[in-house]
Specification:
heterodimer; A: mainly alpha; two-stranded antiparallel sheet; 10 helices; B: alpha/beta; Rossmann fold; 2 domains; 6-stranded mixed beta sheet; 20 strands
């Protein structure tokens, strides 16, 4: 099944979409604000723990494997182009410095943190719920997004069928060199595009006849948030504010390219602890 | 009441009206069947009734349509949605949300129905259509019949007075089509909802209708109670007996394809369990079987699109395990269920050239092959046409042309009559018979008993993963039974 959402009954899945979306937002923002390796590592470990509680660790891990490919380029790029005085070793004419390595690690952790938060959004929030929650901001845009999710398996099946029809017309997808395979696969693009256009016109027609855009709409799952979930959202919003304050005061930030290292004091420990505590209500999840 | 007054409509970019001086009325609670050849304007009429024309499709419109007094020229379809619902042909392309419960609520949310009433209606219609058991299932995981039932339930939850259905059973097998039409009748009789059903398989639905509208070339040529219209339907060849001219054979020609003890499973669910198949030159063999019995899986083993997990398939002496599908395509032509998957070039000629290029056919042979193929399939007039602009029946033949131009010895067709009207099926049947007389061997999978009864030389039934011989006479019986009962 190509649909990314995992329909399990974990406590994270049972939680209303709204606190989950604010949590993901808080983690996203922290991945932008923070650059210190320790801070990022602790947050990443925490988000992976949430994924474990949601039973989506395996799927998150698959996404992180893709992110690792990008990370390789991030490391190479920084090692080749970044400067620094503490040379660790020479790679031919290129000096590999501890500054560039630490900076690369920090960038990769930011990437992994953002991807893990995105994974929670994809795997643990039902797309329809996400649509309903975010529709308060822009309903039409969110419908388009939900529809893309809904049509993803259909378009993937279309793509497989088109490849089969091409095979039946003599197109070799499985033999030959890289460029030959690439050229063969390019043949799939046009029929897939035509089929998708036909589908989008048909769906738009169906939506019109079901009153889409007729006027003020109501919301089927207009459930009131429980008090505990309101508190959760409050905690997550506070964590965003705290993150911004920390950024302003220089906590959780390390300028590795200018020689910053691993120097921490009690203040860092308290701040980091408080930050995780603010995010930890997510682990309580939703009621049975 | 829906009132259509002197309506004429021409699509933008066309100079021929699709509807011409159409006038009719539909009362609340009526069951009206709209019939006619492909391209006669049935689907356009549907879109005029709920305002999709002129609000969604551009063109030149004259005349008026009123739905309970609302002028559709001034009222967009979204604002007619509380009065008039529509179910479309393809179940895949009309469901918006990801699960059944949310899908049923979608239209109600759009109409601004208060939440408590919305919840009550969703549950009521879910029970009515027996949808509660897959309330939380992902829509992409439902079968075609289930999806179409969800589409119907979701539209009816909006409490419309009229329901328009544009060939809603064309993508369904006979069994699911009959179930769907039974539900539709229940809706009409119990809820007193006016039904306007566009269909070309009259044997499926004639018995349900109170009134029939017969269309031809954009005009209504007959409109009245079913009993009065039957002579016109016969005159236009819409209903009639089953004609079979060829005799049954048991495959006396040279053996071209042989499958032995084929096993195949998806995720440990066994689909083929020791299937055996022999195909001899000049045969037209039909494989039938229940939905999900593995018919498509079986024929995909024959050209290497799927490989047997055990057992063997030999095509003209080649073991399919040792060659690619592309290499086998010179011997065995395969046409999948959706002709659109085969059509993407600017012209039909280029489409055929694409196949010839891939098969490595000498360029000097191209013109002869293209001419032969287009003439066999009666498509000579469409050589320079964009293939996706062709009608449904022509598109099926155009897709077949893209395979046939490679001059394979065997044709394998997956549900080739799906969505085709009576005339297009007859045309396809005569094309296949003509090819058979020239030595072509055809294997097809279909639920269409009538097509089998009229065209197959041999029939096989796939059941519990194995093939067994059935008879053309039995298919004839099933086709006649289907015509008599309007169902399976």
């Amino acid at each position: 099944m190509l649909f990314p959402y995992k329909n399990t009954s974990s406590r994270i899945h049972r939680l209303d979409a709204r606190p989950k979306i604010v949590f993901v937002l808080a983690v996203f923002i922290s991945s932008i604000l923070l650059s210190d390796i320790l801070y990022l590592s602790v947050l990443l470990a925490f988000v992976l723990m949430v994924a474990a509680v949601a039973h989506t660790l395996r799927s998150t891990w698959s996404l992180l494997r893709y992110a690792a490919f990008v990370a390789v380029f991030v490391v190479l790029f920084n090692v080749l182009l970044s400067s620094g005085d503490n040379v660790l070793f020479m790679l031919g004419p290129i000096a590999v410095t501890s500054e560039s390595i630490l900076f690369s690690i920090s960038m990769c952790l930011r990437l992994f943190l953002a991807v893990s938060a995105f994974a929670l959004l994809s795997f643990a929030i039902h797309p329809d719920e996400a649509l309903r929650t975010m529709s308060r901001v822009g309903y039409k845009t969110m419908t388009a997004l939900s529809l893309s999710t809904r049509m993803y398996p259909t378009i993937a099946a279309d793509s497989r069928n088109i490849m089969d029809s091409m095979r039946a017309r003599g197109v070799e997808f499985d033999s030959g060199g890289f460029f030959r395979k690439l050229r063969a696969r390019a043949n799939v693009v046009m029929p897939l595009l035509f089929n998708s256009l036909d589908r989008s016109i048909a769906i738009a027609e169906a939506m019109e006849t079901r009153g889409f855009g007729a006027g003020r709409r109501t919301n089927y799952s207009e459930s009131k948030l429980a008090r505990g979930q309101k508190w959760m959202i409050t905690f997550f919003i506070i964590s965003i504010v705290v993150g911004i304050v920390l950024f302003v005061f220089g906590y959780g930030n390390a300028d590795y390219l200018n020689g910053a290292g691993f120097e921490y004091d009690l203040g860092d420990a308290i701040v980091l602890f408080a930050y995780v505590v603010l995010l930890s209500p997510i682990l309580v999840g939703g009621p049975e | 009441m829906i009132t259509v007054e002197s309506l004429t409509f021409t699509y933008a970019g066309s100079n021929r009206p699709v509807l011409e001086d159409v006038s009719t009325q539909v009362e609340e609670g009526e069951f009206v069947l709209v019939v006619g050849k492909s391209g006669c304007g049935k689907s356009t009429l549907c879109r005029v009734l709920n305002g999709l024309i002129p609000h969604f499709y551009g063109g030149i419109l004259s005349g008026r349509v009123f739905v309970d007094g609302r002028d559709t020229r001034k009222t967009p379809p979204s604002r007619c949605a509380d009065l008039i619902g529509m179910v479309f042909q393809d179940p895949e392309n009309q469901l918006v949300m990801t699960n059944v419960e949310n899908e049923m609520a979608f239209g109600l949310e759009n109409l601004g129905v208060p939440v408590p009433e919305m919840k009550e209606r969703v549950l009521r219609y879910a029970d009515y259509f027996d949808l509660r058991r897959f309330f939380h299932r992902f829509i992409p995981e439902l079968s075609g019949g289930e999806k179409q039932k969800v589409a119907l339930g979701s539209v009816l939850a909006m409490n419309p007075k009229y329901l328009i259905l544009d060939e809603p059973t064309s993508q369904l097998d006979a069994e699911n089509a009959a179930l769907f039409l039974d539900f539709l009748t229940k809706v009409n009789t119990e809820l007193k909802i006016g039904v306007i059903l566009v269909e070309h398989r009259l044997e499926r639905c004639l018995r349900y209708a109170d009134r029939v509208i017969l269309m031809d070339n954009g005009r209504i040529i007959a409109d009245g109670p079913k009993i009065d219209i039957v002579p016109s339907l016969k005159e236009h060849g819409l209903i009639g007996g089953i004609s079979r001219t060829l005799s049954s054979t048991t495959g006396e020609g040279e053996l071209l394809l042989s499958a032995r003890n084929v096993h195949f499973s998806y995720d440990e669910v066994s689909v083929l369990d020791g299937a055996d198949l022999d195909l001899a030159e000049g045969e037209l063999v039909a494989i039938t079987g229940a939905n999900g019995s593995g018919k498509s899986t079986l024929i995909r083993q024959l050209n290497g699109l799927l490989r047997p997990q055990s057992g063997s398939v030999t095509v003209l002496g080649k073991d399919v395990q040792s060659v690619t599908t592309a290499a086998l395509s010179r011997e065995i032509g395969y046409l999948g269920q959706n002709p659109n998957d085969y059509l993407f070039e600017e012209t039909l000629q280029k489409e055929l050239e694409f196949t010839l290029l891939n098969l490595g056919v000498d360029e000097r042979e191209w013109n002869d092959r293209i001419e032969w193929t287009l003439s066999e399939l009666d498509l000579e007039g469409f050589r320079e046409t964009f293939p996706r602009d062709l009608s449904c029946g022509q598109r099926e033949r155009a897709a077949l042309a893209t395979v046939l131009v490679g001059r394979p010895k065997i044709l394998v067709l997956d549900e080739p009559t799906r969505g085709l009207d009576y005339w297009s099926k007859r045309k396809l049947g005569s094309v296949l018979e003509d090819l058979r007389r020239q030595g072509m061997t055809t294997l097809l999978v279909t639920h269409d008993y009538r097509f089998i009864a009229e065209n197959a030389t041999r029939v096989l039934r796939l059941e519990e993963g194995r093939l067994s011989e059935s008879s053309v006479d039995h298919m004839m019986f099933l086709a006649l039974e289907s015509a008599a009962t309007g169902g399976t």
